[in-house]
Write a sequence for this structure.
C-alpha cells in the first residue's frame, strides 16, 4: 500500500461545554537554523498556551542546555518560556547512550492567525535558534531560489585533459557571493584562509556580510590554488581561485536546513547547497560534488578507533590503504580528468597530514580509548618508533610534484618536512656545503665564520688523510686491547670483529666505525670491579682520542644556534629530505628554502639584504620577485604605523639578549602594571 505523508493541522473536537480548541502541527518546516542539535517534533496551539515538543541530539556523554530566558517570537512579539518538562532549564543535561533527549517547552498563547514563529533559546550568540517555523503551510513559504545560472548540472565530465602545470603568477583574486536566506540575526563572521606555500604562513582575510547575505573579499595569491571559505558554523569549503580573476559563491542556507533536519515533514534528500560561478567554476562545481566523499576518508572518530594500538608501520599501512581506497573510488566517480587529479592530490595531502602527525594521532587514540585527558599524565603507553622507512610516502607520493600547488594544504606538507627527526640522518655534523649555504643566507661575523670552519674541520668526512690514518691506528689498538682482556661475551666478540673489519677497509669510513663502537657497552658485562674499570678505561681512551678541543664555549655554540635556528633547521631538513627521496632538487626544496627565509616577515621583521640576495640566485626568479614584494609591503606598513603616533621608541644596547634584554626593555616602567603581548 502506498504511503502518503501528510502535514497535519488537527483541530481537536470541542466539547459542548466550550473546551478550548487545540491545533496540532506535526514536524513543521522552518526556514533556517544556527545549530542542528535541537528539533521541533510537534507544536500545539491553544488559547491558553503554545507548546513545543522537542528533541535534543548530541553524542552520548555530551550535553545540551536550554536557557531559562528562551522565548518564541510571533509577529515581532516575544513570548517568554513559562516552564519545561523533561529538561531542567539553564542546566547541562547529559545524553545517554541513545544520544537523544525529548522535552517539552511551554509558552504563552499566540494569535491563531500567526503564520510563522521563531524559536530563540535566549539572545546569546551560541544559543539554539530556529527561524521561520511554518504554522499554516506544509512547505516553506519564503523559499529563496538560487540565482539563475548558478544551479546547473556538471559539464565536461567526460573531459580527459589533465590539469595544466601550475604557474607562479602573483595577484589578487576576488571572491564574492551571497548567503541565501541570511538574516542579520545570524551575525555570521566570514573568513578566507589562504595557506601560502612560499612563506609557510596562513593568511586570514575577514569580511562582513550585508543584511541580505552579500559579501566580497580580496585574496592575494601566488598562483591558482584552493583557499578555505569559512562562514560561522557551516562546513568549511575549499574553493579554487585564480589571481586577477573573480569567482562567486552562493550558499543555500534554507537548502542546508532542509537537508540536515531529522524531523521536518518536508525534509530534503542530501544534495548540493553551494554553487560556484566565475573563474574555475566547472572545476569547483565538480570538486564540491565530491567533497563529502573526500572528507569522510579520514573520519576522525572511526579513524581513532581503527588505529588504536598500532605500531608505526601498521599505522602507515592503514593510512595509505584508506587513501588508496578513496583514490580508487574517485576513478569511478562522475567528473573530468582534471577534477579527479585535483581530488586525488587533496586525498594525498590529507594522508600526508595523518602520516606526518602519526605520533600525535596514535597517542590521541590511546588517550581516547582510555579516557585520559590531554592535560593528564600519560601512563601505560609506549610511543612508536618512526624509522626512515616510515617516510617512504614522501617519495611514493612525489612530494616534489607541482600539481600539489593547486591544493589548499601543500603549504603544510612542506612545513612538516622541515621537522622530520631522524637519528640515522645528519649525524656527520656541518659539511662544507652547509657552511657555504648558511654563509649565503645570513650576515655572519668573523667569529661565527671561524666557528663554522671549526665545525667543518671537526666533521669526520672532512678529515685529511694523515688524520684518518691516525684514527685507524688508534682503532686497531682499541680492538686489540679489548681482545686481550678475554672478558668479551659472544655478542661483543662479534661486534669487535665487525669494527676490526671496517677498520681494515681503505678510505674514510670513520662514521661507520664509531656507530659500531657506540654499540659496545662494558656496563652490560657481569665482571668484577677491576675488570669493569679496565674495560671502561679502554673505551674512554679510544673516544678521547677523537674528541676535538673546544675552541668555542658552550654558551657561544648555544647563542649561535639560537640566532640561526631557522637556517640550520632548513639545512638539516634539506639533508633529511634528500636522503628520503633521493634528490636535493625540486619544488619541495625550493619552498622549504623560501619558507625559512621568509619567516621574519611573519614577525614584522624586514628581510635582510643578504637573504634577498640569496633568493635572487635561486633557479626561479619568481621567488625573489614575490618575497621582495612581501618585504616592500611590510616596510610600507611599518612606515604607516610610525605615522600613527601614540608610541615611544626606546633604544636598548644591541649586545643584550634573552632575559637581560627583556629586563632592559621594562626598566623605564618600574612600579607600573605592564601588558606584554607576544
Amino acid at each position: 500500500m502506498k504511503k502518503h505523508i501528510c502535514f497535519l493541522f488537527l483541530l481537536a473536537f470541542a466539547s459542548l461545554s466550550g473546551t478550548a480548541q487545540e491545533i496540532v502541527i506535526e514536524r513543521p518546516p522552518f526556514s533556517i537554523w544556527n545549530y542542528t542539535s535541537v528539533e521541533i517534533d510537534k507544536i500545539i496551539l491553544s488559547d491558553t498556551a503554545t507548546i513545543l515538543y522537542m528533541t535534543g541530539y548530541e553524542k552520548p556523554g555530551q550535553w545540551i542546555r536550554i536557557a531559562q530566558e528562551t522565548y518564541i517570537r510571533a509577529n515581532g512579539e516575544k513570548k517568554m518560556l513559562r516552564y519545561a518538562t523533561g529538561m531542567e532549564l539553564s542546566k547541562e543535561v547529559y545524553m545517554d547512550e541513545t544520544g537523544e533527549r525529548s522535552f517539552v517547552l511551554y509558552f504563552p498563547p499566540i494569535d491563531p492567525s500567526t503564520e510563522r514563529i521563531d524559536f530563540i533559546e535566549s539572545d546569546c550568540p551560541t544559543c539554539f535558534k530556529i527561524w521561520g517555523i511554518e504554522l499554516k503551510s506544509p512547505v516553506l513559504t519564503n523559499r529563496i531560489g538560487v540565482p539563475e545560472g548558478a544551479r546547473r548540472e556538471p559539464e565536461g565530465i567526460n573531459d580527459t585533459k589533465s590539469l595544466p602545470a601550475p604557474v607562479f603568477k602573483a595577484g589578487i583574486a576576488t571572491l564574492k557571493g551571497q548567503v541565501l536566506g541570511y538574516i542579520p540575526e545570524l551575525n555570521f563572521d566570514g573568513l578566507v584562509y589562504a595557506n601560502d606555500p612560499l612563506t609557510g604562513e596562513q593568511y586570514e582575510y575577514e569580511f562582513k556580510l550585508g543584511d541580505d547575505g552579500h559579501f566580497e573579499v580580496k585574496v592575494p595569491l601566488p598562483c591558482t590554488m584552493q583557499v578555505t571559505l569559512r562562514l560561522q558554523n557551516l562546513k568549511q569549503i575549499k574553493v579554487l581561485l585564480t589571481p586577477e580573476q573573480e569567482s562567486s559563491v552562493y550558499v543555500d542556507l534554507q537548502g542546508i536546513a532542509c537537508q540536515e533536519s531529522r524531523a521536518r515533514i518536508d525534509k530534503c534528500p542530501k544534495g548540493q547547497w553551494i554553487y560556484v560561478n566565475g573563474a574555475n567554476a566547472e572545476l569547483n562545481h565538480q570538486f564540491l560534488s565530491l567533497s563529502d566523499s573526500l572528507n569522510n576518508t579520514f573520519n576522525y572518530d572511526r579513524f581513532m578507533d581503527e588505529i588504536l594500538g598500532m605500531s608505526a608501520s601498521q599505522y602507515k599501512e592503514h593510512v595509505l590503504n584508506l587513501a588508496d581506497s578513496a583514490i580508487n573510488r574517485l576513478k569511478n566517480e562522475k567528473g573530468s580528468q582534471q577534477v579527479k587529479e585535483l581530488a586525488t592530490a587533496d586525498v594525498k595531502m590529507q594522508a600526508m597530514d595523518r602520516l606526518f602527525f602519526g605520533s600525535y594521532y596514535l597517542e590521541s587514540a590511546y588517550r581516547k580509548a582510555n579516557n585520559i585527558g590531554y592535560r593528564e599524565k600519560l601512563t601505560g603507553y609506549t610511543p612508536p618508533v618512526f624509522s626512515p622507512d616510515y617516510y617512504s610516502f614522501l617519495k611514493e607520493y612525489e612530494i616534489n610534484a607541482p600539481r600539489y600547488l593547486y591544493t589548499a594544504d601543500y603549504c603544510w606538507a612542506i612545513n612538516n618536512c622541515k621537522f622530520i627527526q631522524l637519528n640515522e640522518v645528519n649525524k656527520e655534523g656541518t659539511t662544507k656545503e652547509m657552511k657555504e649555504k648558511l654563509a649565503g643566507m645570513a650576515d655572519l661575523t668573523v667569529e661565527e665564520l671561524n666557528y663554522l670552519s671549526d665545525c667543518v674541520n671537526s666533521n669526520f668526512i672532512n678529515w685529511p688523510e694523515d688524520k684518518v690514518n691516525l684514527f685507524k691506528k688508534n682503532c686497531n689498538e682499541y680492538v686489540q686491547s679489548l681482545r686481550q682482556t678475554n672478558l668479551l661475551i659472544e655478542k661483543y666478540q662479534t661486534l669487535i670483529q665487525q669494527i676490526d673489519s671496517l677498520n681494515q677497509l681503505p678510505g674514510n669510513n670513520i662514521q661507520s666505525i664509531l656507530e659500531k663502537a657506540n654499540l659496545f657497552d662494558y656496563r652490560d658485562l657481569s665482571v668484577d670491579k677491576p675488570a669493569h674499570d679496565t674495560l671502561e678505561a679502554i673505551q674512554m681512551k679510544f673516544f678521547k682520542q677523537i674528541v676535538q678541543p673546544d675552541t668555542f664555549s658552550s654558551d657561544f655554540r648555544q647563542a649561535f644556534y639560537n640566532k640561526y635556528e631557522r637556517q640550520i633547521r632548513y639545512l638539516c631538513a634539506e639533508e633529511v629530505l634528500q636522503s628520503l627521496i633521493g634528490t636535493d632538487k625540486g619544488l619541495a626544496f625550493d619552498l622549504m628554502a623560501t619558507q625559512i627565509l621568509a619567516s621574519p616577515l611573519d614577525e614584522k621583521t624586514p628581510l635582510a639584504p643578504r637573504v634577498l640576495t640569496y633568493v635572487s640566485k635561486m633557479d626561479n626568479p619568481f621567488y625573489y620577485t614575490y618575497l621582495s614584494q612581501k618585504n616592500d609591503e611590510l616596510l610600507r606598513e611599518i612606515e604607516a604605523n610610525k605615522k600613527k603616533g601614540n608610541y615611544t621608541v626606546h633604544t636598548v644596547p644591541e649586545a643584550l639578549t634573552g632575559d637581560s634584554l627583556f629586563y632592559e626593555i621594562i626598566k623605564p616602567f618600574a612600579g607600573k602594571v605592564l601588558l606584554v603581548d607576544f
Observations:
- The first helix runs from residue 253 to 260.
